[in-house]
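Need tokens for this chain, all 234 residues.
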Amino acid sequence: MTAAPGDGAVARRTVTAHRVAVIGPHILDVLGRPVESIPVGQGSARLTEIRATAAGTAAGTGVDLAKLGVSVRSIGAVGTDLLADILLAALTSHGIDTGGLVRTAAAQTSATILPIRPNGERPALHVPGATRLLRLADIDLTGLVGFDAVLLGGPDALAGLSGAPTWQPSSRRRTVVRPTAVRPTAVRPTAVRPTAVRPTAVRPTAVRPTAVRPTAMARSSPWMSCTPAANVTS
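Here are the structure tokens for all 234 residues:
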């Protein structure tokens, strides 16, 4: 792998006290919008916009930091193809130092095609490419001294760094951080004691009978009149 040009020769937009190195995926995204459907066969469709951008958890973050006035150095692996040329041009246009990027002919530059739907959805067609080929030997560890922060983006995509110790730069000394085996903590179930529920004594309420006073009925009612037995004739 050979280092990409531009090491230390990138003109900064602003003078800042903050320096950040971004390590990891450097991807060229090609976006087209709006894409309602993929034409059948050899058909075609007209779009409103097609553009290329620097993306990836390292390159994309670096661009955002550069826009905020931070001095950024990109570290990663790209191919020797036209895609890499476009990606480097996009980074340098934002004032990013690309001297930490290495170019390899072993794989193409990582790239993604994003057909953006009218509702904003963006399915991705991705080629992992050279990102996974970055090795620890490709990173100038001593050159990281003096940076305020180092971002390691997308470690799961950096197969070349798998198992390698991570070096954290310090103004005083080097610190090698080795992965520590994490032992799961045994979780003991807590015994739940049932709460004794004491029945509440229900005292019967004394029901006092209500005195019912007979209602005087009208004497003229034929249903209530009584005929003396002496007057009943056969």
